[in-house]
């Protein structure tokens, strides 16, 4: 593990020390840029657009300064920080001291109804001031994920048929086939030998194999697989919610330069996938890669490649993390594991995939470990008014153009909505309350919801029904959690025993 010096990796610290003299010689250039950046930041913080304070008031301000806010929002402490803000202001909306480019204000929302209203509103868009940073993962190339307008809509419309019911059924068949191969080649030998399983590593390998075959009809070589996973890890950690100083002066940091090289390698792989599809004499019609390559609205193959990288990330990393978190919760709760096993073993294979009890277990695991910690994250296209509970107080307004964090994990950890919220209680979903139903939106809502949610749901049901009906899991090492693009488990080791 690299040593940290003043918040920097030691290699960065040494490098900056070496170039300090050279940087000082460039002050004639840097000083005007620094002054300009400072003036812009001051303007964004203190000279907001006019706001009518007679009828409405702004949300209460979070009692945390700019530096502390940035330090928390750009690390895995983000959720603890949001919970602290919510408690301090004693209100479901709060102003954050976190300037976002092209946004008037930055607001935290911890209210299910308001979150739903914002997400479903047609004027709501992705906050490009934040999501544009994701384009560094694809070497600066435009993506449908990080854009609004035509770039988003043409790609989304073209890809949507690849997630139709018929295509989901086809991809679910691939899921079953690849799961059986993994069980025979990997799980069975480890279970027979009593060998602890690095469950997140295994689930990443499995889900990556599934998405590459089912969506892109591409088989990764061992070298490509290793390079892909390494490149994704490096670029996501370096570029997503990165320190603004490293973002601005990235050319001074070896870790940033390394991540930029890895982004180019990701794009090269995606272009190889496109070329392989075009050489395929009998491609399967209607697949994800088929819809992307045949879409004439892309400017060039680099735009196609960027969308492929986004879909690979969304298609394997989230599923792998969800599977690992689920199996850890099951192993930690043997009585719940027994209840699920008993029902699944009384069903045939087709019935297991549609098990309502399994859906409840998946839902509860997702509630405890939602993957998108800071989000959804949007920019509002109109004013939103929040009624005040106090008749003597004016109503609160979230002004048009504001950036809005809506962390659903804050709803999932709300004791008023989910009693004993820290416990794994799948039965709570047997008769969910209206508040529970409102809070449940793991895939987002509106026109920017997760395009692959049907596939993700079927994939989890298919894999877990097979594993939970035939294996018992025990915790060897509980591991921990980390955060880059999503919340993901680290170091979980389980022991599997065939029933």
Automatic annotation (TrEMBL):
One Pfam family recorded for the sequence: p450
Keyword entries, A-Z: Heme, Iron, Membrane, Metal-binding, Monooxygenase, Oxidoreductase, Transmembrane, Transmembrane helix
Coiled coil: none
Record GO terms (molecular function): heme binding; iron ion binding; monooxygenase activity; oxidoreductase activity, acting on paired donors, with incorporation or reduction of molecular oxygen
Residues that span the membrane, as ranges: 12-30
Protein family (similarity comment): Belongs to the cytochrome P450 family.
Name the record gives this protein: Cytochrome P450
UniProt organism field: Nitzschia inconspicua
């Amino acid at each position: 593990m690299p040593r940290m010096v003043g918040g920097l990796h030691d290699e960065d610290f040494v490098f900056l020390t070496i170039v300090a003299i050279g940087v000082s010689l460039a002050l004639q250039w840097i000083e005007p840029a620094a002054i300009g950046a400072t003036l812009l930041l001051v303007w964004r913080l203190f000279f907001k657009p006019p706001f009518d304070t007679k009828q409405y008031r702004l949300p209460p301000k979070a009692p945390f300064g700019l530096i502390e806010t940035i330090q928390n929002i750009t690390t895995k402490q983000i959720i603890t920080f949001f919970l602290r803000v919510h408690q301090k202001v004693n209100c479901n909306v709060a102003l954050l001291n976190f300037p976002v480019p092209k946004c008037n204000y930055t607001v935290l929302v911890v209210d299910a109804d308001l979150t739903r209203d914002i997400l479903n509103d047609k004027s709501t868009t992705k906050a490009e001031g934040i999501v544009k940073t994701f384009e560094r993962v694809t070497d600066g190339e435009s993506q449908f994920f990080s854009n609004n307008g035509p770039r988003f809509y043409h790609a989304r419309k073209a890809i949507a048929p690849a997630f139709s019911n018929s295509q989901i059924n086809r991809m679910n068949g691939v899921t079953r086939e690849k799961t059986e191969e993994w069980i025979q080649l990997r799980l069975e030998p480890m279970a027979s030998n009593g060998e602890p399983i690095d469950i997140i590593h295994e689930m990443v390998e499995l889900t990556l194999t599934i998405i590459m075959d089912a969506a892109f009809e591409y088989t990764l070589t061992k070298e490509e697989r290793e390079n892909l996973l390494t490149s994704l890890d490096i670029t996501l950690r370096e570029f997503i919610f990165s320190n603004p100083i490293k973002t601005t002066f990235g050319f001074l940091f070896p870790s940033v330069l390394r991540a930029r090289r890895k982004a180019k390698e990701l794009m090269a792989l995606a272009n190889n996938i496109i070329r392989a599809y075009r050489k395929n004499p009998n491609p399967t019609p209607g697949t994800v890669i088929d819809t992307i390559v045949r879409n004439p609205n892309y400017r060039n193959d680099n735009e196609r490649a960027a969308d492929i990288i986004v879909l690979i990330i969304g298609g394997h990393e989230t599923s792998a993390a969800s599977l690992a978190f689920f199996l850890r919760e099951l192993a930690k709760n043997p009585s719940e594991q027994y209840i699920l096993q008993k029902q699944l073993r009384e069903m045939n294979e087709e019935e297991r995939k549609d098990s309502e009890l399994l859906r409840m277990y998946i839902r509860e695991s997702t509630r405890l470990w939602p993957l998108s910690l800071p989000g959804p994250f949007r920019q509002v296209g109109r004013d939103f008014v929040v009624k005040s509970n106090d008749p003597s107080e004016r109503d609160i307004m979230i002004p048009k153009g504001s950036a809005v964090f809506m962390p659903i994990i804050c709803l999932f950890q709300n004791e008023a909505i989910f009693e004993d919220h820290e416990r794994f209680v799948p039965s709570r979903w047997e008769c969910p309350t209206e508040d529970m139903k409102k809070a449940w939106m793991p895939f987002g809502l509106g026109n920017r919801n997760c395009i692959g949610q049907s596939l993700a749901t079927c994939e989890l049901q298919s894999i877990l029904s097979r594993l939970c009906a035939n294996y018992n899991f025990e915790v060897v090492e509980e591991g921990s959690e980390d955060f880059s693009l999503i919340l993901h488990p680290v170091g979980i080791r389980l022991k599997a025993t065939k029933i």
